[in-house]
Design goal:
The complex is a heteropentamer, with 2 copies of chain A, 2 copies of chain B and 1 copy of chain C. Chain A is mostly helical. Chain A is built from 11 helices and no strands. Chain A folds into 2 domains: about 35 residues; about 210 residues, MetI-like fold (Orthogonal Bundle). By secondary structure, chain B is an alpha/beta fold. In chain C, the strands form 2 sheets. A 5-stranded mixed sheet of chain C has the order 2-1-3-10-4, with helices on both faces. In chain C, strands 7-6-8-5-9 form a 5-stranded mixed sheet. In chain C, helix 5 links the parallel strand 6 and strand 7. Chain C is globular. Classes of the chains: A mainly alpha, B alpha/beta, C alpha/beta. The structure holds adenosine-5'-triphosphate (ATP) (2 copies) and magnesium ion (2 copies).
Chain lengths: ~260, ~260, ~300, ~260, ~260
């Protein structure tokens, strides 16, 4: 977590510099080496994006997609943490459910579309469900790993200080597993953003995933890239906010291993 | 009150299982301080873990107040030898002490008073905002002591609690511990390497033989009034006796090393 | 009187223009319908939802409608062919491929299982090219231009606007070898569930919907600017892209002989390819009552199962 | 890692039991509650699968897909570990590249298809690349987290014992980060299996992903489920083998935190 | 050889930075054993970390053989106070010792001999297949000693290396350490709490004042021949002197605690 609260000045500068370099090389590559129709250069993408931004089209798409991601991600993470702590601690439960989990986690959100429709129809609920699905197993695997590695001495100390099982879960095991859980959530974040696309296959009429698909159908390369870039930027911002919140609220759970 | 009956403890290890304890019998009366002495690696910590209920004996039985010990109990608080691993690294000094009070449902109004009291006792009151990673080795030990004492358990299982303290701080801690013991009548099992410390604190001293297959080879009753002065000839004689009791193992080890 | 609610599944494609204008101009409302219009990226994804009981009328392509009919044990009826064209399907080939015979020994691509496969099969057959001497690759539609421009494949068979996009991307390397005229026709068909159509309300709604869509068709055929405006607003399609497709659209809104012939040909091919295992019985696949209620001329007598 | 080397007898029994229960409930649910046409019951799926197995069709698909997954997963993991250790240790490099990584990791393998074609054509290479892509970032994020949490005392000890920077990397930092890396790889495994589908959109004419797509295009629900079930089973087996290998070869790196 | 000049060390901490060291001057000659004594938490470990090059001083300078210390160097080997955290948990006892030999490119043929020798020296030869998690606290310390000695560094920085050992094992370790020192002429900085240990080992003893803003308040030259016997009146006097030197801090702390 060393970097979670990097020096702001230098951090911002480096971030800006590194992104600038990335965009510059993209511009050069797609202008001179790739066919700009296949991979439009960033300036072209921005030119396409501007009217979409001005008309408010993108904004509407972003806000609807973000709300879907947030709901799915939050519930997916929460369920995975609760579930993961239980599975990590109760060996029998783990042995019983692990094989089923091991089978199910290979089903992509895309593969779950039919089931989502059957269970939740074609409304918002099924979209939340698909993003939930893209989040849950990743956080789950990480949480179980974190729980398994929560130092036993600490749990024993809590136990003889008088903590009951629930208190050990909440006050000791989860904080001890926090670095794993946070890492899992960061990984899952990418997956939940990717799950917007299958989620919005499902009778959406707005959202970035819908924009992406509609543009793919019509082979509007520039618009495809606007959608992709938007997803990347949203993910980037979301991750920065997440890191900031972690540094703000969970720093004490994150840093202890590195400091010694 | 605490009772070990033919306790055997075997650890799975490569290439063959390691028999740490092999038939340990022990009784600790209510309100007694029992000190355990023994060569490094003989099984003192293992014995405490069994008493605490953290480890099940491979054979034999453990009981506390007549009831068999099946797991950790809030009446028996352990002081861990490795203080760093037992503290909560995400809680600062004050919060580490508060943890026990909170889970024991001590009324909130009393928290501040209790915490202040115990932190001052171990001289950490000026460091109450530091996190365990920011503490020195001795400070971690003192924090663990404060945390264990603050919940006022009936039984204290202490594994070399003062090993990382300088002589004078250690002397102060002895006084603190004895004062609390006299006032509250706790049962204490106290592991140490320091013969002088064992004599200063103990009602009885158990001597363990070197591992593997360690047992409590001898129990010495200390019928001496407290405070005990090492300069006192009776005490000095005792010191020498104990040193000699511990020596054979060392001698054996030295012999082996010489080959 | 309260409007009748119905849900319509469609795709973001210009061959839906009859429906767009019917929506735009309030023709459905005028028929007493309250239409919820849902878009799916393809007919196949629309069917995924449709099969769970969602939606009332679903717009799909030719092959999916037949496939779905068989897979769902007949729980589907085509109520009208909305649009069809042969020009909407094209063969885009590398410059050095000048005639069908040049494809021998080469790799060509399409989306396997789509109308494109049917097109390939008919194209090679009618041009006397031995199909076993041509390698057919499965490629996702969005990858086709890159693969052709990158020289990975010699040609592909696909629907518009992918062909014309490719010509924009690498005009120096690609050209249009042919369209599907004389080989196959791609269809947009509207379908619904038989039990819904059998109910008084379903039949009523379907008929009203067809009537309004026919009126929409009449507008769409004449009023290109309106179609272009809709495509621009909803799909951000350029006027040219819309024009290219609009020009090729023919909108029968009927179940006519051409429809039967084309679907018979499709059925033969599908059976050859083992995609289906029985002939199409048009008395089961189609539901002509709606169109017939509007005008008997719109429905021809179906041929025997083929 | 408590469970990584569970008692075999009990483990196999529980695994079998739990899978049996899962299949039973699936059978009951899809026969009596869902429409069996929407979600075919397992017996139906098996009935569809048997001729496919007998004809060798599935076996060919499985072997080609597995070889793709193995190559992509192995290279993705390896690259991510090397990269992750460097980024985790060299703060400047991290600060410079982190923003770009943070942008790129939200691009799903599906979104990378056009780029894969441009860079690697439509042969096997581009399929490996897409699976690589689905693996790389997950292992990377976990590796960096693991490296950050490698205890400093251990690295200092190695340094003053005489280890150079490379030796500290290889002999101390990577083993310390092993529990994170292994967890990351297990999570990435699911992602790399899911990436078969986009990878085999790309000019495949065999493989499980191809089977899935073709069946989807043709609305062959039973065959779709055969493909999905095959992916799940392969993933399950792959994960068991991975766990077994980890328990066999890496146990010493995994268990130390739990034991104390 | 080792030189600290006006070294100051400030740790960032809430609510305000903590000044651990505030102007420490120290010189350690080649081949000298310097013992450091000081109350718990005064900054002994911090000082060693600065000497080792693990921590940069906030002000002042550190040098080793005239060259400024900019980071860890393989000539200075540290024995960490928290033995558990410094061992490699995935290597067993033998492999932990081998680590140093391997990275120093000691010829492979010599490994077995060196490892046997040092493991026997610390009496761990029977436990060579155990992993650190399977060792007792004292065994971990001994393993760390063996590991540090096996690479035969010029400078040893030892932070309470014998704190968790019983009296007799400790005595043996003293003998071992002195024997090696006499044979190889290492420079040793040795932190301890145990005044007797400091007297037994040291050429000089540095006394640190209590923190914050700790300094080396006094350096005592021990012009006594080895082995030193605590019963010897000259030594006993020295013991008392040192105890008194350390006392004021304790007294101050006790006063504070009383309030
Ligand atoms: N998990 C384990 N696996 C194998 N052996 C173990 C395990 N735990 C402890 N032992 C062994 O049991 C013996 C006793 O260990 P224990 O920690 O009880 O010693 P101790 O008396 O507390 O020593 P010290 O005074 O050094 O702390 C040692 O030889 C140790 O190696
Ligand atoms: N990372 C840190 N952040 C803040 N304060 C620290 C940090 N490390 C050490 N300190 C403080 O510096 C002081 C000296 O610590 P140090 O570990 O050097 O003491 P010590 O003399 O070794 O004590 P002991 O004998 O108990 O090991 C202590 O007050 C400690 O709290
Ligand atoms: Mg012990
Ligand atoms: Mg210290």
């Amino acid at each position: 977590m060393r970097n979670f609260a990097a020096v702001p000045g230098r951090g911002v500068l480096l971030t800006a510099g590194s992104i600038a370099i990335a965009f510059l090389s993209w511009q050069v590559l797609s202008t001179f080496i790739f066919n700009p129709f296949l991979i439009p250069p960033p300036l072209e993408v921005i030119r396409t994006a501007i009217p979409m931004i001005l008309s408010g089209e993108i904004l509407a798409d972003v806000s609807i997609s973000m709300s879907r991601v947030l709901v799915g991600f939050a519930f997916g993470s929460l369920a995975a943490i609760v579930f993961g702590v239980l599975l990590g601690r109760l060996q029998l439960l783990h042995d019983l459910l692990d094989p089923i989990i091991e089978l199910m986690r290979y089903l992509s959100p895309t593969a779950m579309i039919p089931i989502a429709v059957i269970w939740f129809g074609i409304g918002e609920l099924s979209k939340y469900f698909l993003i939930f699905w893209g989040t849950f197993f990743i956080v789950l695997v990480n949480t179980i790993a974190g729980v398994w590695r929560a130092p036993i001495a600490r749990q024993r100390a809590a136990e003889c200080l008088g903590a009951n099982q629930l208190q050990i879960f909440v006050l000791v095991v989860i904080p001890s597993a926090a670095p794993y859980i946070v890492t899992g959530m960061r990984v899952a974040m990418a997956s939940s953003f990717m799950s917007i696309i299958p989620a919005e296959i499902l009778a959406a009429d707005s959202g970035i995933g819908y924009l992406l698909q509609k543009s793919s159908m019509l082979l509007q390369t520039n618009r495809i890239f606007v959608a992709l870039l938007t997803i990347c930027l949203l993910g980037f911002v979301f991750d920065r906010i997440f890191r900031f919140l972690v540094a703000r609220t969970l720093a004490r759970f994150m840093s202890f291993v590195a400091v010694t | 009150m605490l009772q070990l009956d033919k306790v055997r403890k075997v650890f799975p290890a490569a290439p063959e299982p390691y028999v740490a304890l092999d038939g340990v019998d022990l009784e600790v009366a209510d309100g007694e301080i029992l000190c355990l002495l023994g060569p490094s690696g003989c099984g003192k910590s293992t014995l405490l873990n069994v008493l605490a209920g953290f480890e099940r004996p491979s054979a034999g039985s453990v009981s506390c107040r007549g009831a068999p010990v099946r797991g950790a109990g809030r009446d028996r608080v352990m002081f861990f030898q490795d203080a760093g691993s037992a503290l909560f690294p995400w809680l600062n000094v004050e919060e580490n002490v508060r943890f026990g009070l909170r889970v024991r449902k001590v009324p909130k109004a009393q928290w501040a008073g209790i915490i202040d009291n115990y932190l001052r006792m171990v001289d950490l009151d000026r460091h109450r905002n530091k996190f365990p990673a920011q503490l020195s080795g001795g400070m971690r030990q003192r924090l663990q002591i404060a945390r264990a004492l603050a919940v006022e358990p009936a039984v204290l299982l202490m594994d070399e609690p003062f090993a990382a303290l300088d002589a004078l701080t250690r002397r102060r801690m002895h006084a603190v511990l004895l004062e609390i013991w006299q006032r509250t009548g706790k049962t204490i099992v106290f592991v140490t390497h320091d013969i002088a410390e064992a004599i200063t604190l103990g009602d009885r001293i158990g001597i363990m033989s070197a591992g593997p297959c360690s047992i409590i080879s001898k129990i010495i009753d200390l019928d001496l009034p407290r405070p005990r002065d090492l300069a006192d000839p009776a005490v000095a004689r005792l010191f020498n006796d104990i040193e000699r009791l511990l020596a054979p193992d060392i001698a054996r080890a030295e012999e082996r090393a010489a080959h | 009187q309260t409007p009748l609610k119905m849900t319509l599944f469609g795709q973001p494609s210009v061959n839906n223009d009859s429906i767009w204008l019917a929506l735009e101009r309030g023709l459905y409302k005028a028929e007493g319908l309250d239409v919820t219009y849902r878009l799916f990226p393809s007919g196949t994804t629309a069917f995924q939802s449709f099969q769970t009981g969602q939606g009332d009328i679903v717009m799909t392509g030719d092959l999916p409608s037949v496939q779905y009919f068989f897979r769902s044990n007949g729980n589907y009826r085509t109520i009208a062919a909305i649009e069809r064209d042969a020009k909407g399907y094209v063969v885009i080939a590398a410059k050095e491929i000048a005639k069908p015979q040049d494809l021998v020994g080469k790799t060509i691509a399409t989306r396997v299982g789509s109308t494109g496969s049917w097109f390939i099969s008919e194209y090679l057959k009618k041009n006397g090219v031995d199909a076993s001497k041509v390698t057919v690759k499965n490629l996702d539609t969005q990858v086709l231009p890159a693969a052709l421009c990158g020289g990975e494949i010699a040609a592909f068979f696909i629907w518009q606007p992918i062909g014309s996009r490719t010509l924009e991307i690498c005009p120096d390397k690609a050209h249009q070898l042919s369209d599907a005229t004389g080989y196959v026709q791609g269809y947009l068909v509207a379908g619904a569930r038989p039990e819904w159509l059998a109910s008084a309300e379903g039949k009523d709604i379907a008929t009203r919907w067809l009537r309004a869509t026919i009126k929409g068709r009449d507008l769409a055929e004449k009023d290109f600017p309106a179609v272009a405006a809709y495509a621009k607003a909803k799909l951000d399609l350029s006027e040219k892209a819309t024009r290219d497709q609009w020009d090729t659209n023919t909108r029968p809104l009927a179940l006519d002989k051409v429809y039967y012939d084309d679907f018979c040909s499709l059925s033969h091919w599908a059976r050859e390819e083992k995609l289906t295992d029985q002939p199409v019985d048009f008395t089961k696949l189609t539901w002509p009552d709606g169109l017939r209620a509007i005008s008997a001329k719109l429905v021809d007598a179906p041929p025997p199962p083929c």
